[in-house]
UniProtKB/TrEMBL annotation:
InterPro entries: AlphaKG_dependent_hydroxylases, TauD-like_sf, TauD/TfdA-like. Keywords: Antibiotic biosynthesis, Dioxygenase, Oxidoreductase. Pfam families: TauD (PF02668). Its cofactor is Fe(2+). GO terms for molecular function: dioxygenase activity. It comes from the Bacteria. Coiled coil: none annotated. PANTHER family: GAMMA-BUTYROBETAINE HYDROXYLASE-RELATED, TAUD_TFDA-LIKE DOMAIN-CONTAINING PROTEIN. Residues 30-281 form the TauD/TfdA-like domain. This is TauD/TfdA family dioxygenase.
Amino acid sequence: MKNINFDTSTNAQIIYNNQGNSILDLPRQENLKMFKSFGILLFRGFGVTYKEMKAFAEKFSSRFVLDKDRPIVDPNNRYITLVDPGMHYVSPHCENANSPFRPDVVWFCCGVPAAQGGETLFWDGVRVWEEMSGELKNLFISRKIRFLQKFPAVDWKRFLGTGASIADVKKTLDGIEGLSYRINEDQSVYIEYICSAVVKTKYGNQYAFANSLISEYKNPKAVVTFEDGSPIPLGVINQIQELMNRLAEVIDWESGDLVMIDNSRFLHGRRSFTDTRRRIFSLLSYLND
Ligand SMILES: [Fe+2]
């Protein structure tokens, strides 16, 4: 890759642009190799707009998915959204890992960084697992966790497409391991998803504590328990949070930055902020590898 420097002093591999290259000039194969090896890439100095993020992501993606909570920014590019609304701290999570519909890649690009705070945080789930106490490891190897969610019709229509029917819901949800569901009279759907908190990474087949346990535990609208419905003790959650606090890494945004995150291995979150001008755009996709 010509005129690109690599900085290996951080766990997020940073690819700097020194020569006015467009992000779209970067060689796909080389990028893909780095992505699979490092799991998180930060492209800096390319002045990436959200449209370029989409064009770049298309080179690597078989399809895009839409998150139910996020505002769409461009009616012609309906998969590009702003990140989670609000200005609060966001706990570590993998995207949509409370369901079987976990996308492979989370893409972020920065329009305007917050004047203060608002950094995106990330955690290498492989490292979190390695650093976890033997007691917690045993707990999460021996016991699965269960996520409960309710989707009003408007939410699953956003996920499946506005013309989607109950038959489409059934077709999507039937036969998925760990998933059971109930369709209510008002067409809302309850799903119950049972999975391990410890997963194998998609590239490298390593154990990773890469899940949405902490964020769902802290989400007043969500329910997460052990598989049998028994509560996850607060002491366990606190130990995980302490470990996460110790291992958090930071993306200190500059305008035009693009980040590509392996959602099978890395968790992400954010620091709180007060600057209403902050604009971080996001895309979710499945990799075309
Ligand atoms: Fe997220």
